[in-house]
Design a protein that fits this description.
680 residues, 5 domains, 44% helix, rod-shaped
């Protein structure tokens, strides 16, 4: 096995390992968010859902008849079954608030379920930042707080009822001076009612699923429920009468919750902060707070409730970490990635393909890749899904560049089998390989020409010398007065001329094939044209092509690499010969190629223009803009590499000139080479 074969095998195994790693990361990321029992969504700035967990998919809101929604649906359709954005419906939109503030927010939403039941939800929205501090969207987490709202309402009603009854009882006691017995009985009755209300309030207070505590005006804790004990680890007897800063990571004197501040809007909802538990652990909580007032509206304290959201924050960090890892791997590999479903719809694309094709999420792959209006005849994506194996190919995309493609099937979280498509631009690699192959071919031609030069030149020189001797002998005979056969002299002259022509062609072939570092030279354009014709003239004449040249004397010289310019003319003449043979398979008066050279004035400089016109098939108008692209060829398979005109155009550009084309289908094609005239 050659080293090149070994390298290819290693690279192939590396790509497979990386592909498996990417799939593992993708599955792990989806498994993490599916493990969260609350609905979790990743929403882009365009309000479209980019990632969603199973709890969100099962969210019981009214949907379409099928009960399903598109993966790229708007968030307000997925979550609430609405037809327009929340802010247009008079509701708070967490995405808009995050876009305005750049910070995490929490809003309350009342949602109508499929059963018709109204439920209260807290929507916690956290910004999702890109690698260059670009806001990509948000992560939303929904929490059902209906029971908590009901409990708070019951608690408030009980408190108000208690205050009302105490006030009524006080007024009654003031007016009941004449009925002492009745007053005593009514007082006992009021006390019983008060005790009953307090017991009910305490029961609700203890069973509410949120941690709740109250403080007086000095921020000393006056009540503490069981949920607060389980979250913080502090028992009620350990905190009663002590300031609430006992479990605050940052005491209120530094950051402050603002519950007693006139500058802070009440109620305070879903403020994210940190606490320290009794055993020293740091927990992240989302808290609500409001003031407590007596019957006269006087502030007598405050009530706070909070929930432990540490796990949610950890999930958020894990999602960001896995996303960044996955993005980093693909960027390091310089691989573009699309995820395509069975319906040919692109569901995801990474930044590399976004730069190449633009934002194509939701469009068909065959429209993006090939600009087709229907699927490809041979679909690698469906082959990968149906056979459950990786499909690889190499094709030219709509941007006229070569891409190495890998189609990897995988099972998505929605249960559908989809294809992960990896694309790598190999255009430059193919061009380099083609140039290397051409250099090798030229080297082989040079070696072959050098090997046979001696075998050809020696006999040719001998033929020329012998013919010259015979010609000299015939001239000597003529001086002696003997008759000279004119046919014989003409044949000898012709033998000498043809021999010299063969020697000239061999020298030009050696010069063209020689591999050496060329120096730019100041040359006459007619010399390069004649040298090029000497190499291909025999083939043109053999095919019956009529050659006409119009090269006036006194044209300005040009400074070029002669061998490279000769390569350009040979390629253009070869293309002209191909087009003429396509139109005229045999000999025909119209089967001709014309070469014209002239000086033209360009703004600021003089150009030497060479026009090579063939009266062959011509070029279709829709292909004129593509003929200079690498690997584009209108010839039949195996008859052209698609590199000739691309390389020729590059060589002419190196001479600070231009190569362009004018053509009329079925009539003619003119290739125009403009080169700047050399100035001393």
């Amino acid at each position: 096995m050659s080293w090149n074969a070994h390298d290819r095998r290693v690279a192939k195994n590396d790509r497979r390992a990386i592909g498996r790693m990417l799939l593992d990361h993708l599955r792990f990321l989806q498994s993490v968010i599916n493990g969260v029992t609350d609905p979790v969504l990743v929403i882009g700035t365009d309000m479209r859902v980019k990632l969603i967990n199973q709890a969100a998919r099962d969210f019981p809101v009214p949907r379409s008849k099928s009960g399903k929604f598109a993966e790229n649906s708007h968030c307000y359709r997925v979550l609430f079954g609405r037809e327009q954005a929340c802010d247009k419906d008079g509701r708070e939109c967490p995405l808009m608030e995050v876009l305005e503030t750049g910070k995490a927010v929490t809003v309350s939403q009342i949602v109508t379920l499929q059963s018709g039941e109204l439920r209260h939800y807290e929507v916690f929205a956290s910004p999702l930042w890109g690698g260059n501090d670009e806001l990509l969207g948000i992560i939303e987490i929904l929490r059902d707080v209906t029971e908590r709202e009901l409990a708070a309402e019951v608690l408030k009603k009980s408190h108000d009822e208690l205050e009302r009854r105490v006030e009524e009882r006080t007024l009654e006691l003031q007016k009941a001076n004449k009925a002492l017995r009745l007053e005593i009985d009514e007082r006992r009755w009021a006390e019983d009612q008060l005790i009953q209300s307090l017991e009910q309030a305490e029961l609700v207070y203890s069973v509410i699923p949120s941690a709740i505590f109250t403080v007086d005006l000095n921020r000393n804790i006056t009540s503490w429920n069981k949920k607060a004990e389980s979250v913080t680890g502090y028992r009620e007897e350990e905190v009663l009468g002590k300031p609430c800063s006992i479990f605050a990571l940052h005491p209120c004197t530094k950051k402050g919750c603002g519950v007693y501040s006139d500058k802070v809007r009440k109620p305070i909802l879903s403020r994210v902060c940190e606490i320290r538990t009794k055993d020293g652990r740091i927990r992240i909580i989302s808290k609500n707070a409001d003031l407590l007032r007596d019957a006269d509206g006087k502030v007598i304290g405050a009530v706070e409730s909070f929930e432990d959201i540490t796990v949610q924050q950890d999930v958020d960090r894990q999602l960001r970490t896995e996303r960044d890892k996955f993005r980093g791997i693909l960027s390091a590999l310089d691989q573009g990635m699309h995820i395509v479903n069975r319906d040919y719809v692109i569901e995801y694309q990474n930044e590399i393909l976004r730069r190449i094709f633009g934002d194509k999420i939701g469009e068909k792959c065959y429209e993006v890749y090939k600009q087709r209006d229907k699927p490809c005849e041979v679909c690698r994506m469906h082959a990968a899904i149906e056979r459950n194996d990786i499909q690889r190919t190499e094709e030219i995309m709509s941007d006229r560049r070569h891409y190495e493609q890998s189609y990897v099937p995988f099972a998505d979280v929605d249960g559908q089998t989809k294809a992960l498509i990896l694309l790598r631009d190999v255009t430059e690699e193919k061009m380099y390989r083609a140039e290397t192959m051409r250099a090798g071919q030229l080297a082989s031609i040079g070696e072959l020409a050098a090997g046979v030069a001696h075998e050809i030149n020696n006999p040719i020189n001998g033929i020329i010398n012998y013919a010259q001797v015979l010609l000299d002998d015939s001239s000597q005979v003529s001086l002696e007065g003997e008759a000279v056969n004119p046919v014989q002299r003409e044949m000898l002259d012709r033998i000498i001329k043809e021999g010299e022509r063969i020697a000239y062609i061999v020298r030009n072939l050696l010069f063209f094939a020689r591999q050496r570092e060329e120096e730019a030279e100041v040359v006459a354009i007619e010399a390069i044209v004649h040298d090029s014709l000497s190499l291909i003239k025999h083939q043109l004449q053999k095919d019956g092509v009529i050659i006409r040249t119009d090269i006036p004397e006194g044209l300005p010289a040009v400074r070029v690499y002669p061998q490279q310019l000769q390569q350009v003319f040979l390629n253009l003449l070869s293309n002209a010969r191909y087009a003429l043979n396509q139109r005229y398979p045999g000999r025909d008066p119209g089967k001709k190629v014309e070469i014209r050279c002239r000086a033209v004035q360009d703004p600021g400089r003089v150009l030497v223009r060479t026009e090579i016109t063939d009266y062959g098939t011509g070029i279709p108008p829709e292909l004129l803009s593509q003929i200079f692209e690498p690997f584009f060829s209108s010839k039949k398979p195996g008859e052209g590499t698609g590199l000739g005109l691309s390389i020729s155009a590059g060589l002419v550009r190196d001479f600070h000139g231009a190569l362009r084309v004018e053509s009329e289908l079925g009539e003619h094609t003119t290739m125009i080479v403009d080169l700047p005239a050399h100035e001393e």
